[in-house]
């Protein structure tokens, strides 16, 4: 139980284009989803927290117009990197929290983004 | 504010030897504590968690951790290392009282290397 998927697992795009990453909770309803960014050999940096049906809460220093987050249902959240640039290249990981174990986040497998 | 300190960014053990990964936390309220493991190019997998029940917590793959309030520690141990344990390990803290939806604060990670 508590499986979270991400799609795509890796994506390469040209500078200036937008990329959408999906995060799905497969066997539970996610009341809250989180988006993280991880730089090589570094820890995870929380970007934003999203609750179903409401606007995401962004961490300080994260551009909300650049990283658009939508949490349209209890099983799906999307992160759209708009007008991507090479510095946006990174490993993006989502996590989800359900009603059964409110304190525990379950993580997706991550999405490797490379912007050329 | 919460924080997590993982002593030793790299730990190397021989196969069959004891694994000890250190984690100290800081929290002004009773914490929830987690250990996650990350294999290369993958998301995080929950190893175990402490949520104010038993102080000795057993997790998957033979790992366990003991919550010691007096030492503000939550060290991860495994009696006998296996080659498949080689990975990055993250300690994380949250608490039940945050209004931010139980945001996790991660340590900087410990890379475990297992040698023959």
Question: Which key phrases capture this entry?
Answer:
heterodimer; A: 116 residues; 4-stranded antiparallel sheet; 11 strands; 54% strand; B: 116 residues; mainly beta; 12 strands; 0% helix; globular
Radius of gyration of chain A using CA atoms only: 13 Å
Q: How many strand elements of chain A?
A: 11
In percent, how much strand structure appears in the residues of chain A?
over 45%
Query: Which descriptor suits the 3D outline of chain A?
Result: globular
Overall mean confidence score, pLDDT of chain A: 92
Distance between the termini of chain B: 41 Å
Give the percentage of residues in beta strands of chain B: over 45%
How far the N terminus sits from the C terminus of chain A, by CA atoms, comes to 37 Å
- On the 0-100 scale, what is the average pLDDT of chain B? 90
SSE run of chain B? EEEEEEEEEEEE
Estimated structural class of chain B? mainly beta
Written as H for each helix and E for each strand, in order along the chain, the element string of chain A is: EEEEEEEEEEE
| Spatial shape of chain B | globular
- The amount of helix of chain A comes to under 10%
How does this structure look, described?
The complex is a heterodimer of chains A (116) and B (116). Chain A is mainly β. Chain A has no helices and eleven strands. In chain A, strands 2, 4, 5, 6, 9, 10 and 11 form a seven-stranded mixed β-sheet that branches. A four-stranded antiparallel β-sheet of chain A has the order 1-3-8-7, with no helix packed on it. Chain A is globular, with a radius of gyration of 13 Å. Chain B has 116 residues and is an all-beta fold. Chain B is 0% helix and 52% strand. Chain B has no helices and twelve strands. Chain B has strands at 3-5, 10-14, 19-21, 24-26, 31-38, 44-50, 56-58, 64-68, 73-78, 87-95, 105-106, 110-115. In chain B, strand 5 and strand 6 (44-50) form a beta hairpin. Chain B is globular and about 40 Å long. Chains A and B meet through strand 5, strand 9 and strand 10 of A and strand 5 and strand 6 of B.
């Amino acid at each position: 139980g508590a499986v979270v998927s991400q799609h795509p697992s890796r994506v390469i795009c040209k500078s200036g284009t937008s990329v959408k990453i999906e995060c799905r909770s497969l066997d539970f309803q996610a009341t809250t989803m989180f988006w993280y960014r991880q730089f090589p050999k570094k820890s995870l940096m929380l970007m934003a927290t999203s609750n179903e049906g409401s606007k995401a809460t962004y961490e300080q220093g994260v551009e909300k117009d650049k990283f658009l987050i939508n949490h349209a249902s209890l099983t799906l959240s999307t992160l759209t990197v708009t007008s991507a640039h090479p510095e946006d290249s990174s490993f993006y990981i989502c996590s989800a929290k359900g009603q059964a174990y409110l304190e525990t986040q379950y993580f997706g497998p991550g999405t490797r983004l490379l912007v050329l | 504010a919460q924080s997590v300190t993982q002593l030793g960014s790299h730990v190397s053990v021989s196969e069959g030897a004891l694994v000890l990964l250190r984690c100290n936390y800081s929290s002004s309220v009773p914490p929830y504590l987690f250990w996650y493991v990350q294999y290369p190019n993958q998301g995080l997998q929950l190893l175990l968690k402490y949520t104010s029940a038993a102080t000795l917590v057993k997790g998957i793959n033979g790992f366990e951790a003991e919550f010691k309030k007096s030492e503000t520690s939550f060290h991860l141990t495994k009696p006998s290392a296996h080659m498949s344990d080689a990975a990055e390990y993250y300690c994380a803290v949250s608490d039940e009282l945050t209004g931010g939806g139980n945001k996790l604060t991660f340590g900087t990670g410990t890379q475990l290397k297992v040698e023959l």
